[in-house]
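Incident log, support desk, overnight shift.

02:14 A customer reports that sequence design results differ from what the structure should imply. Their input is reproduced verbatim below. On-call engineer (initials T.W.) acknowledged and began investigating.
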């Protein structure tokens, strides 16, 4: 049996194990271990198992992940997000669907302070959704907007998915962060535009909310959002200004978030303990998946499957846009059943040689990849953000209403995706500017 055939059997076995609900990390490790044993011998497989985890965990760049996660969970558990929503709801009060648009803006701001879609969705579901339901917004819009806007945490830097993508593709994490700014803002703008149009055409969907705010209250709201400029300027300003690396920025962000919460007297012992618990669980899960992905990368490389797949796809077309569209279709289908982190770590070992052979800019593809993963976060049956939101609301809104509400936002994501594919300069403009 040839190594190539063993590799393809391994890919099939992997998806078979996933179909039986084995965890992605365990499935990646099991298939890789058995595959390498069959191709070579047990000693070779044991050698990879003993070396790979240590080499991965010893990578300094990975320390950014727990630090950014800790920053996000500190912000979520200490209420640093509430002020942004209150301010935006006042500023957008006269705009049709203003509360929903305020939710988009608040999610975007929180995403810039956390880098986590899950943390963004969980935090905003308890702040924005109850206010929209209280204002008689249709439940599908009230929940759909938060579930979809929570995905902005994947695109607006700092982003955990960008850190993982940068490490596994050996691309600059700083450049990926810079490249995500304009697409992230574009995604938020497209969401807001769609909400405004729908609320204008169907007023019952998002009834007008009268906000009476005097100057004193407005100044108070402006003061309440000061944590965001501190966190965003501290983290992104430091990276873009060259004061520290993206890896160091995670520690700076975590320190700033804890300091700001302490100054606001919201960093209680309970909030800190919960942030540490959430960070520990999330980090261990990501690292476990990453170890499986590294082993699978080695298995795929030894089997020759990536090269065979490269030749197969290039035989269909060597046009970069055709290849991107084929990969996009694969991501959309797999995104329905595999979570975003698992999907990116599962596919990169196979697709990276294809991208390199087609001479596709990996920074540009990184933004396309993250956008595709965003769609997966709100696409059933897995759609993690859907279940995070449903759980946070304790079943107050039915899951089918949440899924229904995300349909329009998925359509807007697809529109934005086509714009990013058709105009690569949107993603590459800022990185090119910073390089000059």
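02:41 Re-run completed on a clean worker. Output:
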């Amino acid at each position: 049996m040839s190594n190539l055939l063993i590799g393809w059997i391994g890919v099939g076995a992997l998806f078979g194990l996933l179909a039986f609900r084995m965890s992605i990390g365990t499935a990646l490790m099991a298939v890789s271990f058995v595959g390498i044993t069959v191709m070579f011998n047990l000693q070779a497989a044991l050698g990879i198992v003993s070396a790979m985890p240590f080499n991965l965990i010893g990578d300094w760049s990975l320390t950014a992940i727990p630090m950014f996660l800790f920053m996000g969970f500190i912000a979520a558990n200490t209420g640093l997000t509430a002020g942004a929503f209150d301010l935006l709801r006042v500023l957008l009060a006269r705009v049709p669907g203003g509360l929903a648009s305020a939710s988009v803006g608040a999610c975007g701001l929180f995403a810039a302070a956390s880098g986590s879609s899950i943390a963004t969705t969980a935090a905003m579901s308890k702040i924005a959704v109850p206010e929209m339901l209280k204002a008689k917004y249709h439940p599908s819009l009230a929940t759909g907007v938060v579930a979809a806007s929570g995905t902005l945490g994947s695109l607006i830097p700092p982003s955990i998915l960008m850190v993982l993508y940068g490490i596994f593709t050996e691309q600059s994490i700083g450049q990926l962060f810079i490249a995500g700014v304009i697409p992230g803002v574009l995604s938020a703008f497209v969401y807001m535009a769609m909400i405004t149009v729908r609320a204008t055409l169907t007023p019952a969907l998002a009834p007008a909310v009268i906000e009476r705010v005097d100057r004193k209250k407005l100044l108070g709201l402006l003061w309440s959002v000061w944590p965001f400029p501190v966190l965003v300027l501290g983290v992104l300003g430091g990276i873009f200004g060259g004061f520290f690396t993206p890896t160091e920025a995670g520690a700076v962000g975590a320190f700033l978030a804890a300091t700001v919460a302490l100054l606001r007297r919201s960093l209680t012992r309970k909030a800190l303990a919960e942030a540490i618990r959430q960070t520990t669980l999330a980090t261990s899960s990501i690292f476990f998946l990453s170890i499986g992905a590294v082993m699978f990368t080695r298995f795929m490389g030894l089997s020759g499957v990536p090269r065979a797949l490269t030749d197969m796809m290039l035989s269909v077309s060597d046009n970069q846009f055709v290849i991107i569209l084929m990969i996009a279709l694969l991501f959309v289908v797999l995104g329905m059943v595999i979570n975003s982190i698992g999907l990116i770590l599962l596919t990169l070992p196979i697709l990276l040689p294809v991208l390199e052979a087609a001479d596709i800019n990996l920074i540009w593809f990184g933004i396309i990849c993250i956008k595709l993963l965003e769609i997966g976060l709100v696409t059933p049956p897995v759609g993690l953000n859907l279940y995070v939101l449903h759980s946070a609301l304790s079943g107050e809104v039915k899951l089918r209403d949440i899924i229904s509400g995300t349909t329009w936002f998925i359509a807007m994501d697809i529109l934005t995706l086509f714009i990013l594919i058709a105009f690569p300069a949107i993603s590459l403009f800022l990185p090119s500017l910073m390089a000059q």
